């Protein structure tokens, strides 16, 4: 009964701590993120009309962290007059790719085929990405809507992966590694990666090596990007909840250790007695 | 031939793809591209095979009233109509997207969100300073967590600097070591497959 009460108390407090900032945002500061600043500056400096690729590996399980990043970067591309080709190598990703396209049409009046294209899902994960890097026209013949890609004006400007000014990826998996291996390593096309927080330390090494031109780590990276863009969105709101959650976990750690040391001391005294 | 066939295919495809990576030959690259595209077709077939296998497995479980057979019924009740919608109407259709948005997306997001509660339990139970190693783990974990949120800077500007140092120096060194070690392992495994020494990918392990 004791354990049940304690567990439910911890979970109940956690729910309150995380939910409250979502309902009423506190506006906790988002710390400086050099890797995200680098990504922002790189995209900001791309010339108008540059063709970019967004690898949308977003799924419901990771959307909370990387979907806001995808939206922020897509908005940035359109604001700067870039063209966007959206691709995915996971089945769930296609839904988010379509959603991203709709958002671009709604907010920026983007025209399908001219300003953006949605490519269909290709099975094979890393091999699929490698195939796209080696021969994009060999892999894709039709878009997601079964239209011949050659009929789309934007596609006629693309002959190989080298035609992209930047490839950005939104992932909770090893896609960053694949980008570095197949797109940067072989063709020196600049890459940006947006990852979930747990994958950030892994991906950060590639940014430090100069194999990524920028990085967005978890909600924090996305929130920083939103603020840099001057369009606070989902990530900025979530950042408050995440910060509150982290503080709560730190308090739990502290209480847990104090109670642990107290119980050890009591045990020691009993055994001495 | 049952053994030699897969070894020969492994040798030829492996050699072509690896050689084309290092040599600038248009002909070789074209063959390599074709081989890589074959892999995409195989992956697509694997998905279909996986779906068929799921239906067979759960169908069998229901037929034999196996362990938790009720869950198999639930699976098939949702899987088969969704598959039918996808095959008949396509993934761009309003029907397919309705099921995805109203059922799959919230269910999947909820499943993932639940891990937060388990993580909280783990923090409460596991992060105890029982010895020096546990102490270091807790201290660095707390520093990185604080460094990730703006409030860390508000407490002391040293916290994000220390957190960055941990991520940039200690973490980078560790991850690089693991990545290089893993990559060398992949290279040696690839070589073993090409040379026919590694046969565990065959159904009977090549025996």
From TrEMBL, chain A:
Superkingdom as given in the UniProt entry: Bacteria
Transmembrane region(s): 245-263
Keywords, in A-Z order: Membrane, Transmembrane, Transmembrane helix
Designated name of the protein: CN hydrolase domain-containing protein
Record organism: Candidatus Fermentithermobacillus carboniphilus
Origin organism lineage: Bacteria, Bacillati, Bacillota, Candidatus Fermentithermobacillia, Candidatus Fermentithermobacillales
UniProtKB/TrEMBL annotation, chain B:
Superkingdom assignment: Bacteria
Transmembrane stretches, start-end: 7-23, 35-57, 69-89, 109-127, 134-155, 175-195
Alphabetic keyword roster: Membrane, Transmembrane, Transmembrane helix
Protein's name according to its UniProt entry: Uncharacterized protein
